[in-house]
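Quick one from the shared queue. A colleague (R.T.) flagged Ubiquinone biosynthesis protein as missing a structural entry in our internal table.

Convert sequence to structure tokens.
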Amino acid sequence: MSQVLRTPATRKLLHASTLPRLCTSRTYYSYETPLPPPYPPTETAILSAALPHVPTLGWTTSSLRQGARDAGYLDVSTNLFPKAEFELVLYHLRTQRLGLKDKVQFPEEAGLGMTSKVRSLVMERLRGNVEVGVQGRWQEALGLMSLAGNIPPSLKELYLLADEIWFLAGDEAVDSSWYTKRATLSSIYAATETYSTTDQSTDFKDTEEFLNRRLEDARVVGGAWRNVKEWIGFQGIATVNMARNFGVRI
């Protein structure tokens, strides 16, 4: 299950040691290189069959066992997943991220700016939780992601999602902003995702307004990428506090 960061072809030979510590295990590749599948066939069959049980059984080993049965495997097959129910969360995160490219396209004639594209991609990803039927259980998923042993892979997946969104939005930066854009968007996405778990508006209208405010804050406070570290730190603290208010165990 190798993970790679998307980057312009002009940077594909850049040594991995220049990446942030969060991403040092990945390699670069060009725009033309397809993403590898996130799981082998057997694991994919079990996890994909287990996901529809999450709305009723939650992010639990019960969902995994039921998925194994539905896929024609014995209950013991769930031993393939050392992270147990958290592997089901990761499966959803990875498949949703990889599926974005097939859900959102931006015709050149539309003339959309970068911020509009990023907004559309973030909202499409969040609506994916609703489409799959797990939005009502998403606070449980956030709780699992906040457990000490699950934080590193959760942060890695968050960073990969931010990278994918910038790639699909058409970002071709090759300077230091390549990193700060992804770190900033990771913070914005985490805050917006947490907010979405209590959104009762139609089609996530309130969540989209929340996202618009965060994007505007990033544009104003982090303009020309000044003070971006301070902004990210503030947003991180605010996100944790908001999650705790919503009952997420962090």
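Residues 177-196 form the longest helix (20 residues).
The mean pLDDT is 80.
Added to the table.
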